[in-house]
Amino acid sequence: MSELRFKRVLLKLSGEALAGDEKFGIDPATVSKICREIAEVADMGIEVALVIGGGNIFRGLSSSAKGMDRSSADYMGMMATVLNALAVQDQLEKLGHPTRVLSAITMQEVCEPYIRRRAERHLEKGRIVICAAGTGNPYFTTDTAAALRGMELKCDAIVKATKVDGVYDKDPVKHADAVMFKQLNYIDVLQKKLGVMDSTAITLCMENNVPILVCNLYKGDIKRMMLGESVGTIVQGE
Fold it and tell me: Which tens digits make up the pLDDT trace of 70-85?
C-alpha cells in the first residue's frame, strides 16, 4: 500500500447524507453504505474521528424552528446529532469497528461525555470516535464543532464528505458548466462564499493551518485522498 498522507483525520458528515433519497430521517441502507466507506479508511490504519450534523432530523435555523427561541431550537438540533451518532455507531460496530460516541451534552445512559483526553485515548486504541451534540452551545454549527474537535484532537486534516466531487464555482447539480477547483486557499473560500463550511469553521482552520479536504462521500474518494491521490478539493494556506 502507498504511504498514508495523514495519520489522524476528522470526518465531517451532514445529517442529510444519512437520509439517502428521503427528505428526512435515517435510511439504514444509506448509513450502511457510508459506514463501509468510513471502515475502509479505518482499515488503512488511520485514526478516525467523526462529527455528524442533525439536519435530517431537526435544524435550529430550519423552517420547522420558525418562531422558536434560537437557543432552544439549537439544543434540539444537538439532540438530533446524537441520534445520528448512535445510528452510525451501531453500523460501524456491525462492521467490526469499535466505536465510541462522546457527547458535548451529558447523556450517561447512552454515550460518554466528551473529554478531550478520553477521546484521544480512544483514537490511540484504534477506536472510531463520534463527537456528538456539536460544541454543546447554541449559535454554533456542526461545521464549527468539526473544526474545533479537529484542533483539539490534533487531527492532520478535516475531511468534508459531500454528495459531489469537490468544491465548485456554482452548484454542479443545477449548472452543467460548473467548474471544480482542485485547490483553494482559506481566503478564497471566505471571499467567494463558496460554502465549503461556515466562516467560523474556515477561520479556525486557517488560524491553525489545518487543511480541509472536500470529496465525494461515495466512490472510495475518501480512501484515495488519504493515499494522496488527486481527487476532490483541498483548502489550505498559501
Answer: 899 999 999 999 999 9
